Here is the input.
Amino acid sequence: MIKKCLFPVAGYGTRFLPATKSMPKEMLPVVNKPLVQYGVEEALDGGLNEICLVTGRGKRAINDFFDTSFELEHQIAGTDKEKYLSSIRKVIAQAKFSTTRQSEMKGLGHAILTGELLVGNEPFGVVLADDLCITEDQGVMAQLVEIYRRSNCSVVAIQEVDEVDISKFGVIAGIEEEPGLFTVTDMVEKPEPADAPSNLAIIGRYVLTPYIFEILRHTPPGKNGEVQLTDALLTLAKTSKVLAYKFKGRRFDCGSVDGYVEATNYVYENIYLKDESR
Ligand code: UTP
Here is the structure.
């Protein structure tokens, strides 16, 4: 079964400058938890407890975050502030972490290929932590794992987006096999609205078979001179099968200021204020 979840967290986060000049965008807090913690909790919810981080320069805070801070633990032991650490303690107890570094930011596809060292020859999940997904029950990764179990092929999470936003995404064309589940026939990275094959956009959650590494090795840089995961996924869709699943839940683009503010308001009102243990 799938045990590993890859977190490419090496990107520059330019849309969030100057905040991300010396701080990873994955450490931006949505209310009181950093984005990367939400992502790891979602992976754990899907049964993936081997967390593989592809980091880069200036991302040390992410690794430190998943270490026990003995000084802090000592300071607050036995006080009523201990409850603030309970969620991260749980994550640290359940997850195993490994890290590698992407020495040059050559795109998401390149970051995933860099993660091969940690993933090896097995199917794996991918979480882009700046896409925050909030669901009522099962997390999005758990939803994808369930589809993988039935189909044994790569699965990407998709959502319907408005025409004005389509050029921010990778967009699929597909054949609907059952409600909300498509076999991918085409994919275009960040198309102009007129060239978009549908309104179904790929978001930052994937379950991939290890064959993707072989394809990425031979994928030339595409848009912006970066190795695009979308290009490799299209090759995968043409040589084997890729499914696209309209996940249940809401996604916020926390890599953008607008999405981040929207997420913060939503989580504050719908999760934080309702949490009686806070
Ligand atoms: P984004 O394009 O959203 O991230 O990549 P970015 O480049 O950090 O952000 P902007 O556009 O400059 O604001 C999606 C994910 O892929 C990772 C990012 O960290 C993010 O989680 N990524 C991207 C890498 O790990 N390496 C890269 O070379 C590029």
Q: What stands out?
A: The mean pLDDT is 95. Residues 167 and 191 are 5 Å apart (CA to CA).
